[in-house]
Amino acid sequence: MTVGVFAVSVAVVLALAIPLLTQTTSPRTIDDLTFDVSTDKAVYAQGELVHITGILKNTGSAPVFLSQRSSCSNALAKVEDSNGATVWIDVSNSGQVCAMVIVEMTLGPGESRSFNIAWNQTGNGGAAVPANDSYRAVYRVEYIERSFEGHASIFIRDSS
Question: Which residue segments constitute the domains of the chain, with CATH numbers given?
């Protein structure tokens, strides 16, 4: 008789659990995400700190689920000169020990996530970049489902 009660209990538990296991969450509406990059100003004096911001926003009416491949930052910032050559890459994340795990994130309708970095107008070699030239601040964030990239143009004028 105990075997019969156990079999019925297992059948009831499975009957209740199967619908929960087969339900799907809202579809991934990646197309409802926008990624905008901006700086705090358009024109900077030579040597002035440039604040670069990237904002990933869900403009849709359903949650969007994203995942990345490690516990470290999935964002990359760089600055290019007017010829398109990279003069600076954010190396603040280099040398970090990262857990190789899937990190998931949900952005609800209207929610956003910000990425911020400051650039001191020096190249990766440490020398100041030339003034009286245009530059492009580029931000890129990578998720398993899709990567997003945006840029903002700035001008560095001679401080004299």
Answer: 26-157 (2.60.40.2360)
